[in-house]
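Deliverable D4.2, example record:
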Amino acid sequence: MLGPDDEVTASADLPALGGAGSADAAGLEDTLRGFGAVDAVGHRIVHGGTLYRSPVLITAEVRQRLEALTDLAPLHQPKSLAALDAVAAVLPGVPAVACFDTAFHATIPDAAATFALPREWRERWALRRFGFHGLSHSYVSRRVAELCTPRGATPLRVVTCHLGAGASLAAVRDGRSVDTTMGFTPLDGLVMATRSGAVDPGLVLWLEEHAGMPSGELAATLESRSGLLGLTGTADMREVLSRAAAGDPRASLGRDVYLHRLRGLIAAMAAAMGGVDAVAFTGGVGERSAEIRSRAAGGLAFLGIRIDEGRNAASGSPDDYEISAPSAAVRTFVVAAREDLQIAGEVRSVLWGGSA
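Output generated by the structure prediction step:
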């Protein structure tokens, strides 16, 4: 819960709700009652499809449309809607706003958003690159712009690196997303904790045809048994790096595959903007792993990215800090993930006007 000046006045971690009538609903009610007076609620909704390109006040009609988008995010949308319903039951009459992880990427140009698929497919099923983690990318890119001030009239091109259990990059030019690594689903792009990232679709078709693998098993494997977990046996980057340092070849391979994809796609994001002025790391891995930041930057000197290893290794730094080497052409930052602040801003923009 945030106060009027965006200070955290109360917080709680609760298990995901299976629905408003689940056993966890009572705990949610106790928690919300303990927060005191609530003026508005902001809900993170993973998928807004092509319907929602900005935050929206939740009405019965909006709720129905969000449910219709479940097929686009079957793992995330039902949980979001269950939470929405449960909170509405405890706080009836309190306005609620849906804030979408896809909305920030609605500005991606057609060249980046369009898949090379038949037109009839694309139009019938709205097949396009949606992108995700938009709340994080939006906040981080705006925070980097603040850290880079004053810049005069020079455009700012930022690659934001959201590296957590889920991971994605965004190319943000003057505050607008122009490309991102996740696609139609959150499976695309970077190697993640348990998600595969980009895989040749022909490989998936081959497994289905020649190995007789059902689509459900393919989906579960790509989503939950791949990524770092599939490569190394653990989804925890800290353990991967520890084991790699001890000489474990499987962990070393997993680390290197992760970094190979990360460096390549940072360069791709820079190419989408015709260059890069700043790079920002955020998320659990991005904020906490000096080694990943160092190894990623070490392969990107050709872009002008160089970090100061002392700054990079320093612990107990402020939430947001610069790790660039003094002579680096591109500035590099570590920025704390604050999707809560982004959501609060979007709620205010919908209910009371102003910018998100």
